[in-house]
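Exercise 4. Each item below gives a protein and its sequence. For each, produce the structure-token representation.

Item: Sigma-70 family RNA polymerase sigma factor (Saccharothrix syringae).
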Amino acid sequence: MVKAIDEFRRKALLGGEWDPAGGASLKSYFTTACVYAFPNVYRKWSTDFNRRRRESARSMDLEGLVGTATTTPNPADAAVTRLEVKRGLAAIADERTRQALVLREAGYTVREIAESLGTSHGTIKGLLERHRRTADQPVRDGGGNA
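Answer:
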């Protein structure tokens, strides 16, 4: 709105672009100015918002991400859950896979995770699928007694 008001004031009132004989009322001219200003302002806001969100996701440490996924109200349960999550995450070598798993558990969509981590939807989908496949494989002790 602020951008539209500035443009309206500059062009219509000071610049003389609005003409009462032109058929559009001052109200219509202003409304149209708002409609035309919106897409550019929104694109700029959206770009800035997504950039800040990606930077925020990159700067999150693993400890902060683990806290994001914990929703248990009981403090003792929360402590045990955090320890279990930390142990499970420590077994995953790839940092990006760990971040994607924590964000997914926190309720983010694959597309949102991709935006946050600065990668593609397909990359995150592949990471999660590969992790799921390897996590479903039975662990062998090497002695042949599976």
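Check: The domain at 60-136 is CATH 1.10.10 (Arc Repressor Mutant, subunit A).
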